[in-house]
Amino acid sequence: MPAPHELDGADAGGQFLRTAVSLSVLENEPVRLVDVRGDRSTPGLRHQHLAVLETLAELCDADVSGAELGAETIEFDPGHDGGGLAGGEYAVDIGTAGSVTLLFESLLPLATVLRAPLSVTVTGGTDVAWSPPLDYFRRVKLPLVRRYGIAATCEVDRRGFYPDGGGRATLRLAPSTIEPIDLTERGPIEGIRLYSTESESLADRDVASRQAEGTLERLHVGPGAFGRGTEDGNVTERADADGAADRRAVELIERCETTAASPSPGSALVLRIDHGTGIAGFTALGEREKPAERVGEDAADAANRFLEGTAPVDRHLADQLLVFLALAGGQVRAPAVTDHVETSCKLLAAFGADVERKRDGETAIVSVASPLDDSG
Q: Residue ranges of the RNA 3'-terminal phosphate cyclase insert domain (predicted)?
């Protein structure tokens, strides 16, 4: 039995744990993590982290120690023989408003080692703070990774907002072969898609519609020649001789407003921007006492900052793509080297990935020349 990878989570959060355990399954190599979520005010495993650990352990029949709430040291030894995962149908109840999408993120790379289809239905929070809203996962991330060979779909049964959760969604994966990723240049802006969701209890206030309007009015590109732009779709501050901003219209491809049954009142908005080489997404969640229009404006503000730069993906997606980069090789331009990116790169290197980070102006290019051997 190989010695486990000794990993220190003292300066990392839950993503470090999730990625480490996913890599353990992918590479069929044991891990030992200490100081789990050590930089958080409440360190150790919370409900959503425990759900990830237990679900991945069940999928590969792993030996696990430390699988309990509050645990700060865990050991995970995959039980599969290196021949891949059997697939099947599973159900997981996180038990709180813990994030459904963060569990899905941990499962998504496993498509590359499946021998048969896998279906996992998860109950918990679908649209909660500190995690991607469900529409970001299924409308932004999944379409992008499918371009590189990941066969995945997501079905929504019920939304779950904080604090009660109670949402339910199903991730379906099929055996997949991922292709090298090349996301370093942004193509022309081609269109925008808008997904605004309200719980039934907020429908009489037209929250979903008001969120969408707040986004479109604030966004620098869009229908009705909103915003400033150049012919290649990148936003600038260039003005003509009269001092008026050079404005460019971008097609609104899709606007979807949903009223959803949910145990808790809540709302979410996801803005997707399509361009010639990739996809970027921007999100905002409703808050008590916060006008719905302002929720939409928050997502638009994040998108406007993205449009002023040159990266082809948003900062969250850049980070989430790194595990796929390690598996397939290639390169991704990140809008910035965040703490998450730095931590993820170090973790991938610990498993043997040849990761290189190179700053290029305000962005950074993360590349993997020699991908991990995922054959186990």
A: 184-307
Of the residues 5, 49, 220, 340, only one is catalytic, namely 340
Residue set of the binding site for ATP: 316-320
Nearest-angstrom CA–CA distance, 134 and 299: 15
Tokens of 65: 């120690």
Residue 315 included in any domain: no
Q: pTM value?
A: 0.92
81-102 pLDDT tens trace: 777 999 999 999 998 899 999 9
Order across the sheet with 189-199: list the strands: 252-260, 189-199, 267-275, 279-285
Residue 340 bears catalytic tag: yes
Give the end of a domain, one of 179, 198, 230. 179
Which residues define the annotated binding site? 316-320
Last residue of a domain, which of 83, 101, 127?
83
Domain that holds residue 51: 1-83
Q: 146 and 235 share a domain?
A: no
Summarize pLDDT for 307-327 with one digit per residue, the tens.
999 999 999 999 999 999 999
